[in-house]
Amino acid sequence: MYNILICDDEQDIVNALKIYLTDPNYTFYEANDGMAAVKQVEQNDIHLILLDIMMPKMDGIQAMMKIRQISNVPVILLTAKSEDTDKILGLNAGADDYITKPFKPMEVIARVKSQLRRYMQLGGGTQPASTIQIGGIVLDDESRSVTVDGEAVSFTPTEYDILKLLMENPGKVFSPREIYQKVWKGDPFGGEGTVAVHIRHVREKIEINPAEPRYLKVVWGQGYKIENKH
Q1: Domains of the chain and any CATH numbers
Q2: Mind listing the pLDDT tens digit for each residue in 93-139?
Q3: What is the pLDDT of residues 61-106, one digit of tens each?
Q4: What string of DSSP letters covers 146-168?
Q5: What is the DSSP string of 17-81?
Q6: What is d(CA 154, CA 132) in angstroms, rounded to the nearest whole number?
């Protein structure tokens, strides 16, 4: 049973999303502004949040920042096509993905299932505990922690999974689509832009000078790779 919080100031959208996601395994919670969403997360065991950006009292970006202080629950932003800047702000604040209005029911279902699957598998996979080291980056998969040149660095679950994928395959180039499919475990539906934002976050955390990266390289027209530094 999964608890899904739908936060939007338009009740018609909340109702539509509940219809799209009709499933006996889902229990729905509702909020109509960011403040109410934060309270729901504080008071309930929420497994996923669908969060609108433009709302009264507290917008989705502010709510996202407060939620990230208390929970790593997956957050999918609900955005309008004209809100590209806000999408980036939301991803920077810790959102995992976004869906653009008007919604396509199959896309909503796919993205929700993908995030729930990833969230419930965090730390519970069947892979043996292991440590991966590339240059000064050490990834400990048992504790899901990362150090860079001996200093602990904090990663969101999505950033960690991207870094792990690349470090497990040093030198291999992954396209944004492949990264999305492997990390989010779903069809991108145009979500490659989400990958680019998370890649930038990872680079900023592992590189001394992100503009001249030692590890995380772009292969123009192809994708991204981690170079194995000995």
Answers
A1: 2-121 (3.40.50.2300), 131-226 (1.10.10.10)
A2: 788 888 888 888 888 998 898 888 877 766 433 334 478 888 889 99
A3: 899 889 988 888 889 999 886 667 777 888 887 888 888 888 888 8
A4: EEETTEEE---HHHHHHHHHHHH
A5: HHHHT--TTEEEEEESSHHHHHHHHHHS--SEEEEESS-SSS-HHHHHHHHHTT----EEEEE-T
A6: 16
Highest mean predicted confidence (pLDDT) among 74-83, 165-174, 182-191: 165-174
What is the predicted pLDDT for the residue at 188?
Answer: 66
Taking the C-alpha atoms of residue 172 and residue 121, their distance in angstroms, rounded to an integer, is: 25
Pairing label, strands 75-79, 97-100:
parallel
β-pairing verdict for 145-148 and 137-140: antiparallel
